[in-house]
Design a protein that fits this description.
Radius of gyration: 19 Å
Distance between the termini: 58 Å
Number of helices: 7
Number of domains: 1
Shape: globular
Number of strands: 6
Strand content: 25-35%
Largest sheet: 6 strands, mixed
Structural class: alpha+beta
């Protein structure tokens, strides 16, 4: 046991140095449009998988009141220091009742604690007011800090006589695959990604215009997700 701890202590500076060394390379790498389309399609698949499983599905009554949706796909891994990073989309219901384009965002979370393992984390945030989505106008915001977020009720609970829609700005639905052990201190945020949206939509318009105007026609690749959300929350 003492030998293992000694090995970890010796390797830890190298691991941290490697993370910092790789960070600039990752930041400078530009995604292809095909990669970005795949990200949108993965978010559609996440929403479909949630709604197929009554144990985690979002109730129709919750979706009916939704003003926006954030769908996030993250990967989390850690040993002593944990890093959760990923991608997602945000969509809002416009004044006309139609849902907006899916606008690409990034998601990140760092944590400190004794952690061993890795997992995929799929999360859907239901936004119940118009103000929360607009927090992204300032580049990034922390869910649970800038906007109060609570675990949302499941579809399986909808038939319970005591069921009621929870009144909170953000309702959270999440599932994980894999194993991740250890207490963590979380400080997660989501941020706009105007560079990726410029590639995906071939436009100079940024997140506010993409969400709240109809100036960009949806390309065929994002239409399935838009149709799915529209069918769930007409």
């Amino acid at each position: 046991m003492q030998s293992s701890l000694s090995t970890v202590k010796k390797l830890l500076p190298l691991l941290i140095a490697a993370l910092f060394a790789l960070a600039p390379v990752h930041a400078l790498a530009k995604a292809s449009r095909a990669d970005l389309v795949t990200k949108v399609e993965s978010c559609e698949a996440i929403l479909q998988s949630f709604q197929r499983d009554p144990r985690i599905a979002i109730p129709a009554s919750v979706l009916a009141n939704a003003k926006g949706l954030v769908i996030i796909n993250q990967f989390k891994a850690g040993l002593i220091f944990g890093v959760k990073a990923g991608h997602g989309v945000i969509m809002v219901k416009q004044a006309t009742g139609r849902w907006s384009l899916p606008v690409l965002i990034t998601a990140s979370e760092t944590s400190i604690g004794l952690q061993i393992g890795a997992n995929d984390v799929e999360t859907i945030y239901v936004l119940n007011d118009d103000q929360t989505a607009r927090l992204l106008f300032k580049q990034r915001f922390r869910l649970g800090v800038d906007a109060k977020a609570v675990i949302g009720p499941k579809a399986a609970e909808a038939n319970n006589p005591d069921y009621k829609v929870i009144d909170a700005p953000v309702l959270v639905y999440s599932k994980t695959a894999g194993v991740f052990a250890g207490a963590t201190v979380k400080a997660g945020y989501i941020a706009r990604n105007d560079d990726d949206n410029a590639i995906l939509y071939n436009t100079r318009y940024t997140l506010p215009e993409l969400l709240y105007s109809n100036w960009v026609q949806p390309p065929a690749e994002v239409q399935p997700l838009m149709n799915l959300v529209q069918s769930l929350s007409p």
